[in-house]
TrEMBL record:
Belongs to the glycosyl hydrolase 43 family. SUPFAM superfamilies: Arabinanase/levansucrase/invertase (SSF75005). One of its GO terms (molecular function) is hydrolase activity, hydrolyzing O-glycosyl compounds. Keywords: Carbohydrate metabolism, Glycosidase, Hydrolase, Polysaccharide degradation, Signal, Xylan degradation. Gene3D superfamilies: 2.60.40.2340, Glycosyl hydrolase domain, family 43. The lineage of its organism: Bacteria, Pseudomonadati, Bacteroidota, Flavobacteriia, Flavobacteriales. This is Family 43 glycosylhydrolase. Residues 1-21 form the signal peptide. One of its GO terms (biological process) is xylan catabolic process.
Length: 728
C-alpha cells in the first residue's frame, strides 16, 4: 500500500474512532467575517467554460435572478483572454469565491488545453478581483514550484475556501502522480493570492483506490461536506464529511447524482433567502448540465424542468451576488439582443424564438390558444435593465415596439412579432415520430425518439396524446432502457407502434431500437407502461444486405389480408411477416426490398385506395438535405414502382426549415384526410449547429395530399402547421 493511502486510511479511522473530533472554532467572528455574512445577495453569477476546443477553454460568465434561469454575458464569449493568464493557452473548470471581507473575489482555474492530452498539464491559475470585471492573475506550475513532483501528470479542478480558523484561503485540487490514482490535495494561498505558501498536502483519496477528482467543499451543520467524483469501482459523485477542514473526511458510501449517465464537476450553492441548496453537475456525455435541489445535502431532487440556459456550460460554479454587482456585470457585458431574447411567458415556445440582432427584430412562436390581443412576452428583469412596455400588448394586428435599456449603454428599440405556430407540435426536442389513432381511447398518439443528446445517446422513450393533432399532452416515459430492458442500455431510437384488437381486448405492440437492434414491448394501453419481451427481435443483418444497421422499424397490418409485417433497415430495407403473437417473425419470409439508391432509412408503409405506399428518407439526418421520397406497390411485399417525381417533403431554406425527414403518416378516421408527421432541425438554432443539428430535432405535422391518379403531391413544410381536426 502506498504512503498516501496509509495516511488517508489513518485519517479516516481517526475520525471514526473519535467522538470528540475537533469542531470548527466557535469564537467571535472577525470584522471581515461579519461583513461577508451580512452581504445581501439577490442574484447569481455562473462562471464556466464550454468545451474541449481551444477557443472554448476560457472563462465565461452568466447571470441569473433566481438560480434557475441563466443568461450568458458577453454573448457567451470569454471575459478574460486565456492566453494571457495561462501557460498552455487555455483554462478550464473555473471556481469563484467571495472573500471573507465581502468585496474581494477569488477565482482558480485548471491551466490546460485538452488537445495536448489529459495528462499534459502541471499548472493552475489564480485570479483576484475587487469588482468582478478587472482581474489580476498568476500561474503556479506545481511541478516546477515544488520538488518531488517529477512524475506529476496532471493538476485538475482547483477550488478555494476560506479557513476562518487559519484566516487564510485554502486551495484544494486533484493531482495524479505516475501510476497512482488522482488524489485531492490542498495548500494555503499567500496573502496576495499569487502563490502557495507551502508544498501540497493530501486532503482526501478515494477508499476504492480509484480516481478522486473535482472536489467541492460546502460547510453545513457544523461539518465540511466534500463532494467529489470517484472512478475505479463505479463512478459518480460521492460525499465525504469532516468536522475539520483539512483532515478526517469520512466517506458516505452512496452516489448522489440523479442520473445513470457519466457526470463530473459537482458544484453546490445555497439559494438566496432560502434553506435550500442546488447541486449541479456536468453530464458530459450528453452535453448538458443537471440541476438538483436539496435541504439536507443527503436527498436530491432533479429540477431540470425548472432550469433554463441560453448556453451549454461545462464544469463551472455559481456565486450569489448583490444587485449592485449584477448591475455592474450587465453594464459591462450585457447586451440588448440578449435582454430582448429573455421573453419567458408560459405561452412561448422558448426553443423557437428567433432573434435578428442586425435588424433588431424578435419573432416569438406561441402555443395554440394564446390570446394575441393581450399578450405579455414577460421579458426577464435584471438589475440595471429595463424593457418597456411591460404590460400586455395587442399583437394580433402586427408587431409591437419594445425599448431595452441597460444602465451605462444607449437604449435600443426592437420590433417584436408574435404568431401562433403549430409546428413544432411537441414541446422540446424529439425526432423519428411514429403516430397512430387509438380506437380504444379515441385519441392520436405520437411516439418519438427523445432527442437533444449528443450523438443520439438518449436512453428512454416518451408518448404524447392529442384529441385533434394540435394540442398534445406529454404522457411521460413509457419505456426506459436502463430500467425496463435487459438486453440493451443505449441508443433509444426510432420506435413504431400498432394497435391490435384481440376479441374485446386491445393490445399495443411497440417496436423500438436499442444498441442498433430492434426489440418489442407490449401494453394494454397506448400510453403504457410497456413491458419488454426480454430479447431483441432483430439483432443481425439479413442475408443479402450489404452494410447498414438494424434500426428504424415500421409495423404495418394489411387491411386486405389482416397479415402483419415489419419493415426495417438503414442502408437497406428489409421486410418480414410477423407471427400471430406479434413479438416474433417468420424467419423464412425475410426479404430485402430496397426501392432504389436514394433509400437511407426510415421506411413507413400505408394503404390507400387499393395501393400500398412506401415512404423513406434520403441522405443523412445530420444533413439539411434530409428528405422523404416514396414508391407505390400493389402488394405489401413489392415490387415497388417509383414515380418520376417522387419527392414527398424537403427543406424550405428561405423559411429556415431544414433536415425534413424520418416520417410517419396518419389518416383521420373515416375520412380521406391524411397528414405527414416528420422531424426537422430545431428552428432557428439548428440552422447554425452544423452536424449537431442532427440530434437537436423537433416534430412537425403538415397536410399530405394526393392528385387524381393517387400520386403524392410534394408537401411544403411550414411553421404554421395544421388546424385542429374534428373527429366525428
Amino acid at each position: 500500500m502506498n504512503t498516501c493511502k496509509w495516511v488517508g486510511l489513518f485519517l479516516a479511522l481517526n475520525t471514526l474512532g473519535s467522538v470528540t473530533a475537533q469542531q470548527p472554532s466557535k469564537k467571535k467572528s472577525s470584522k471581515s467575517e461579519i461583513k461577508a455574512s451580512n452581504t445581501k445577495t439577490t442574484a447569481y453569477l455562473f462562471t464556466y467554460f464550454t468545451g474541449n476546443s481551444k477557443d472554448e477553454e476560457a472563462i465565461r460568465f452568466a447571470i441569473s435572478n433566481d438560480g434557475y434561469n441563466f443568461r450568458a454575458l458577453n454573448n457567451n464569449k470569454p471575459i478574460i483572454n486565456s492566453a494571457e493568464i495561462s501557460e498552455t493557452g487555455g483554462v478550464r473548470d473555473p471556481h469563484i469565491l467571495r472573500g471573507a471581507d465581502g468585496k474581494t473575489f477569488y477565482m482558480v482555474v485548471t491551466d490546460m488545453v485538452s488537445a495536448k492530452g489529459w495528462d499534459s498539464n502541471r499548472a493552475m491559475t489564480l485570479l483576484k478581483s475587487s469588482d468582478l470585471i478587472h482581474w489580476t492573475s498568476s500561474k503556479i506550475n506545481i511541478q516546477k514550484r515544488f520538488p518531488g513532483n517529477e512524475d506529476l501528470l496532471r493538476v485538475w479542478a482547483p477550488q478555494t475556501i476560506y479557513d476562518a480558523k487559519a484566516k487564510k484561503y485554502m486551495i484544494y485540487w486533484s493531482m495524479k502522480n505516475g501510476k497512482n490514482p488522482d488524489i485531492i490535495y490542498y495548500a494555503y494561498a499567500n496573502k496576495d493570492f499569487t502563490d502557495l505558501e507551502a508544498a501540497p498536502k493530501q486532503l482526501f483519496f478515494s477508499p476504492t483506490n480509484g480516481s478522486c477528482i473535482d472536489g467541492d467543499i460546502i460547510f453545513k451543520d457544523g461539518k465540511y461536506h466534500l463532494f467529489f467524483k470517484t472512478e475505479g469501482e463505479g463512478a459518480g459523485i460521492k460525499i465525504a464529511t469532516s468536522g475539520k477542514l483539512t483532515e478526517g473526511y469520512v466517506l458516505q458510501d452512496k452516489y448522489v447524482q440523479q442520473t445513470k449517465d457519466p457526470v463530473e464537476g459537482a458544484g453546490v450553492f445555497k439559494l438566496n433567502n432560502s434553506e435550500e441548496y442546488i447541486l449541479m453537475y456536468d453530464v458530459y456525455t450528453k452535453g448538458k448540465y443537471q440541476f438538483t435541489k436539496t435541504k439536507d445535502l443527503k436527498n436530491f431532487t432533479v429540477i431540470d424542468q425548472e432550469v433554463t440556459m441560453n448556453f451549454h456550460p461545462r464544469h463551472g460554479t455559481v456565486l450569489p451576488i448583490t444587485s449592485e454587482e449584477a448591475e455592474r456585470l450587465q453594464s459591462k457585458w450585457g447586451n440588448a439582443a440578449d435582454v430582448i431574447g429573455t421573453a419567458n411567458a408560459k405561452e412561448i415556445k422558448k426553443i423557437n424564438t428567433k432573434i435578428d440582432a442586425e435588424n433588431k427584430t424578435v419573432s416569438l412562436s406561441v402555443k395554440p390558444g394564446t390570446n394575441l390581443n393581450a399578450f405579455n412576452p414577460s421579458f426577464l428583469s435584471f438589475p440595471g435593465i429595463q424593457v418597456k412596455p411591460n404590460t400586455p400588448q395587442n399583437f394580433s394586428n402586427g408587431p409591437v415596439q419594445y425599448t431595452s435599456t441597460i444602465k451605462g449603454q444607449s437604449p435600443q428599440t426592437w420590433t417584436v412579432y408574435a404568431a401562433e405556430n403549430h409546428n413544432p407540435v411537441l414541446e422540446g426536442l424529439y425526432a423519428d415520430p411514429d403516430i397512430i389513432f387509438s380506437e380504444k381511447t379515441g385519441k392520436f398518439y405520437i411516439y418519438p425518439t427523445s432527442d437533444g443528446f449528443d450523438g443520439w445517446s438518449g436512453t428512454y422513450f416518451k408518448a404524447f396524446s392529442s384529441p385533434d393533432l394540435v394540442n398534445w399532452k406529454d404522457e411521460n416515459v413509457i419505456l426506459d432502457l436502463h430500467k425496463d430492458v435487459s438486453w440493451a442500455k443505449k441508443n433509444a431510437w426510432a420506435p413504431c407502434i400498432t394497435e391490435k384488437k384481440i376479441g374485446d381486448t386491445y393490445k399495443y405492440l411497440y417496436y423500438f431500437c436499442a444498441a442498433q437492434k430492434i426489440g418489442v414491448a407490449v401494453s394494454d394501453n397506448p400510453a403504457g407502461p410497456f413491458m419488454d419481451s426480454g430479447k431483441a427481435l432483430i439483432d443481425k443483418r439479413p442475408e443479402g444486405a450489404k452494410g447498414g444497421q438494424q434500426i428504424d422499424p415500421d409495423v404495418f397490418i394489411d387491411p386486405q389480408t389482416g397479415k402483419s409485417y415489419l419493415y426495417w433497415g438503414n442502408g437497406y430495407m428489409a421486410c418480414a411477416e410477423l407471427n400471430d403473437d406479434m413479438i416474433s417473425i417468420k424467419e423464412e419470409t425475410i426479404k430485402i426490398m430496397t426501392p432504389d439508391n436514394t433509400f437511407r432509412e426510415g421506411a413507413t408503409v400505408f394503404f390507400r385506395n387499393g395501393k400500398y405506399y412506401f415512404l423513406w428518407s434520403e441522405d443523412d439526418t445530420r444533413s439539411e438535405n434530409y428528405k422523404v421520397r416514396y414508391g407505390i406497390s400493389n402488394s405489401p411485399l413489392g415490387p415497388i414502382q417509383i414515380p418520376e417525381n417522387n419527392l414527398v417533403i424537403a427543406k424550405d431554406k428561405e423559411a429556415g426549415i431544414l433536415g425534413t425527414g424520418h416520417n410517419s403518416v396518419i389518416q383521420v378516421p373515416g375520412k380521406d384526410e391524411w397528414y405527414i408527421v416528420y422531424h426537422r432541425f430545431n428552428y432557428p438554432k439548428g440552422n447554425t449547429m452544423g452536424e449537431a443539428a442532427g440530434y437537436n430535432r423537433e416534430v412537425c405535422i403538415d397536410k399530405l395530399e394526393f392528385d387524381n391518379e393517387g400520386n403524392i403531391k410534394e408537401t411544403k413544410p411550414t411553421h404554421q402547421g395544421i388546424k385542429a381536426i374534428q373527429l366525428k
